[in-house]
Design goal:
heterodimer, A: alpha/beta, three-stranded parallel β-sheet, two-stranded antiparallel sheet, 7 strands, 40% helix, globular, B: mainly beta, 20 strands, 57% strand
Chain lengths: 191, 310
């Protein structure tokens, strides 16, 4: 997304070298990014953020559709300020709704499942599937440790210690991942 | 359209300070370049010119509900320096909206200054919403100076909501607000201030809670840009079992300077008083978030400030 500067290598988007481009320029080309820890503001409301994300004077009913998609009752949220009165889970869903409003060719989600309280993975997975279907020629990159999210991937890239260790389909990569120390849950390790 | 003796600059200023595009409904008094430019009274709201002092007395009859009073001031001639005294006598059980404000357009070489002294005597169980906006424009070397002084005297169980906004173009301002509350009275102040260039703004509040269950909430949000400087000084005194809260939240940019001095004085063991103050630059992650939506850094800044000063 251009937030961190790469020390080496190149990044291509649709054949264009975007390595030197800043955050705004990459966003304008059609890249979206959902933060692991969504940002809080003072005074900026949910409707304002969705309008900025969509780049147009989004109508209330369209904005409500995006919020309903992430499981928020739109009427309760549309005028709420995106400040510390919202829980981490609510912020996370609003963050995902802003990406739905962006409708870009590439959406990058940084640990989308982190902080999704009381809201099933199934809904999150359904959103990704809908996005893939509804936004034409689009790709989604999900950064995750969560096996159930990895299962919907067309391709898994295993990053470890800053390098790519493996790439392949779910069937190729996932069985090897499960059973390594990285995939052993905390209870197992305590034993 | 406005059927008043006001030129185009005056009309622009009126739109900025009072959202007035047409003659307002209800009572009004327009003061333009120290002259009366229009006045309307209603059965319940009377406006009279003071004798011996510049300014007006506004009388609102008890039980007046759903009415409004607009008293905008426009200064568009360079070199005007005036102090105006406006007194509001608000009867018991009223529910009214009062819109004041001053717009200064100074294209000349001389300073233009309007010092408005507003006194509110709020009757028992009356509810007042008071909106005050200040705005300056014009590219002359003469300074645009506004020094509003507001005094509020609140009877039992009355409430007052004050919105005070000064977003643009005023070179120098000293804002003084004094309030005294009797039992059960409630005061809510929402101040919005932005300074730029080499402007200087000073805002002082002295709120005294004298009666049981009196409450005050004084919240200021401000932005200091360029080389401007601001001082926010809010003092809440509790002389009875009461609740007081003051908050100053500021964004500092460029070489701006802000001094926040919230202070509390409790003279009763059941006085509950709180203050908060925060000053900081725009958070980097807020800028980055909006830039990931395709905004430039400058556009992101503008949106963050617009939201902050809402």
């Amino acid at each position: 997304m251009g937030i961190e500067k790469p020390t080496s290598g190149q990044i291509f988007f649709d054949g264009q070298d975007v390595t030197a481009l800043g955050v705004t320029e990459r966003a304008k080309l059609g890249i979206s990014f959902a933060f692991q820890q969504p940002v809080r503001f003072k005074g900026i409301r949910v409707i304002d953020l969705l309008r900025l994300a969509s780049g147009k004077q989004l109508g209330i009913s369209d904005a409500c559709d995006y919020l309903s998609e992430v499981g928020l009752c739109a009427r309760d949220y549309i005028d709420r300020e995106i400040n510390s009165s919202l829980s981490g889970g609510e912020l996370k869903r609003i963050e995902i709704a802003t990406l739905l409003a962006r409708q870009t060719r590439l959406s990058v989600f940084d640990e989308p499942e982190a902080g999704i309280d009381l809201w099933s993975f199934q809904n999150l997975i359904r959103i990704f599937e809908n996005m893939r279907r509804e936004i034409k020629d689009s790709s989604i990159v999900i950064i995750s440790h969560q096996e159930r999210i990895l299962q919907i991937a067309d391709e898994i890239i295993l990053l470890s210690d800053g390098t790519i260790k493996q790439t392949g389909t779910v069937d190729e990569v996932l069985p090897q991942l499960i059973g390594t120390t990285a995939a052993v849950d905390a209870c197992e390790r305590l034993k | 359209m406005l059927d008043l003796n006001i030129d185009d600059i005056g009309k622009t200023l009126l739109a900025e300070i009072a959202d007035i595009h047409d003659t307002p409904a209800g009572a009004y008094n327009f003061r333009v370049n120290s002259q009366l430019a229009g006045r309307h009274t209603t059965d319940n709201i009377d406006i009279m010119t003071k004798e011996g002092l510049p300014g007006i007395d506004i009388f609102i009859k008890p039980h007046t509900k759903g009415e409004s009073v607009h008293i905008p001031v426009v200064v568009s001639a360079s070199g005007i320096k005036e102090t105006v005294y406006n007194d509001f006598y608000i009867g018991d059980d009223c529910d009214v909206v009062i819109v004041a404000g001053c717009g200064i357009d100074n294209c000349g070489e001389h300073d233009a200054q309007h010092d408005g002294v507003h006194r509110f005597y709020v009757g028992k169980n009356a509810h007042i919403k008071y909106v005050e906006k200040h705005y300056g424009s014009g590219d002359g070397n003469g300074k645009r100076i506004l020094n509003p002084q507001t005094e509020v005297y609140m009877e039992e169980d009355s409430s007052m909501e004050m919105e005070m906004e000064q977003i643009k173009g005023v070179d120098s301002t000293v804002r003084t607000t004094i309030a005294e509350l009797k039992a059960g009275a409630k005061l809510v102040v929402k101040e919005r201030l932005m300074t730029h260039g080499d402007q200087i703004a000073k805002s002082d509040y002295m709120v005294t809670l004298n009666g049981e269950n009196a409450t005050a909430d004084v919240v200021s949000r401000s932005v200091a840009r360029d080389t401007s400087s601001q001082t926010f000084n809010a003092r809440i005194t509790g002389n009875a079992p009461c609740n007081g809260h003051t908050e100053c939240d500021s964004i500092i940019m460029d070489s701006g300077k802000i001094l926040a001095i919230p202070s509390l004085e409790a003279n009763d063991v059941d006085a509950m008083l709180f203050h908060e103050a925060a000053i900081g630059k725009i958070a980097g992650d807020q800028l980055i978030k909006l830039m990931t939506l395709g905004l430039t850094e400058a556009e992101a800044e503008e949106q963050i400030i617009k939201g902050f000063l809402r």
